[in-house]
Automatic annotation (TrEMBL):
Belongs to the LysR transcriptional regulatory family. The keyword Transcription applies. It comes from Labilithrix luteola. One of its GO terms (molecular function) is sequence-specific DNA binding. Residues 1-59 form the HTH lysR-type domain. InterPro entries: LysR-type_TF_proteobact-type (IPR058163), LysR_HTH_N (IPR000847), LysR_subst-bd (IPR005119), WH-like_DNA-bd_sf (IPR036388), WH_DNA-bd_sf (IPR036390). Pfam families: HTH_1, LysR_substrate. Keywords: DNA-binding, Transcription, Transcription regulation. PROSITE patterns: HTH_LYSR (PS50931). One of its GO terms (biological process) is DNA-templated transcription. This is Transcriptional regulator, LysR family.
Length: 302
């Protein structure tokens, strides 16, 4: 296999969905493109395209290969550009994954784009765990410990989960004085999309009632929906403090049981291990390190 040229032919065929058009772009015949694809399929032991007499389309294996190839070719193109111009200006497509806390991160991304206008951000908001290398991400921000010890990582800002309710809720229900009283309240829970498990509340397990959350509870898999339902007085919930700074400040939400809360969490930057970070990745890491560590300039929900 002629690595770079064969992969480039594959990418062109995938983008144009035509061996003829791919060949025209590469200056070779359609049959040469077809032979290249056949060679790649033999090399990988997988069918990359569905073929008919009139069209071609990627198989599932082909789609996975395309993600990796686009990243490889983009990095090579970026390296050629940087060396040709003798500069290290951040530029090119940057694929990142962030938690489903878009109101918190979106202003930061806008600031980054203003500072680095030549970097094209491709952002995936999701609380699902991603495979940084396999899924082709340049940088990922997640909470908790790094899921893969092989990844490079940097710990960012700490945050805490706080228990909150709306004034309209407390107008009808007493403010709890200890976690043991929570079963007398309507409770709202967040279900983690990647595990299907409920987000634990920030208390030591031995202070919670045995049937915690068994009655009158509501479960959602959207943190934004959890915030809205809590503001609407549907019950008490446990929410990361950075998401509700405005709501706490203007009185739409009220904290309770602070003295019983234990532990803290933190954001973490993750990226594939490499001996040379592309300028765009370095810029992103440095920007978010400045903004979110050690004492972040928090951007709040609007």
């Amino acid at each position: 296999m002629d690595g770079f040229n064969d992969l480039n032919a594959f990418v062109q065929a995938a983008m144009t969905r035509s061996f003829v058009e791919a060949g025209r772009r590469l200056g070779i015949s359609a049959s040469a493109v077809g032979k290249t694809i056949a060679r790649l399929e033999q090399h990988f032991g997988a069918r990359l395209f569905h073929r008919t007499t009139r069209s071609i389309s990627l198989t599932e294996d082909g789609a996975r290969l395309l993600v990796r190839c686009e990243r490889i070719l983009a990095e090579l193109e970026g390296a050629e550009h940087d060396f040709a111009r003798g500069e290290d200006t951040p530029r090119g497509r940057l694929r990142i994954a962030l938690p489903m806390a878009s109101p918190f991160f979106s202003p930061l991304l806008a600031d980054f784009s203003r500072i680095y206008p030549h970097v094209e951000l491709d952002v995936e908001f999701s609380d699902t765990l991603v495979d940084v290398v396999r899924d082709g991400f340049d940088v990922v921000i997640r909470t908790g410990a790094a899921p893969d010890s092989r990844l490079s990582s940097r710990k960012l800002a700490p945050f805490r989960h706080v228990v909150v309710g709306a004034p309209r809720y407390f107008a009808e229900q007493p403010v709890p004085s200890s976690p043991s009283e929570l079963n007398a309240h309507r409770l709202l829970f967040y279900r983690k999309p990647h595990t299907g498990k409920l987000e634990p509340w920030p208390f030591a397990s031995d202070v919670l009632p045995a049937s915690f959350g068994a009655r009158g509870s509501l479960v959602v898999n959207s943190i934004d929906a959890l915030v809205v339902m809590t503001i609407e007085g549907r019950g008490l919930s446990s929410i990361p403090d950075y998401l509700i700074e405005n709501e706490l400040r203007d009185g739409r939400l009220i904290r309770t049981l602070d003295s019983h809360i234990v532990g803290a969490n933190a954001f973490r930057l993750l990226w594939p291990p490499t001996t040379h970070l592309p300028p765009k990745v370095r810029a992103f890491i440095d920007f978010f390190t400045t903004k979110l560590s050690p004492k972040p300039t928090r951007r709040t929900r609007r």
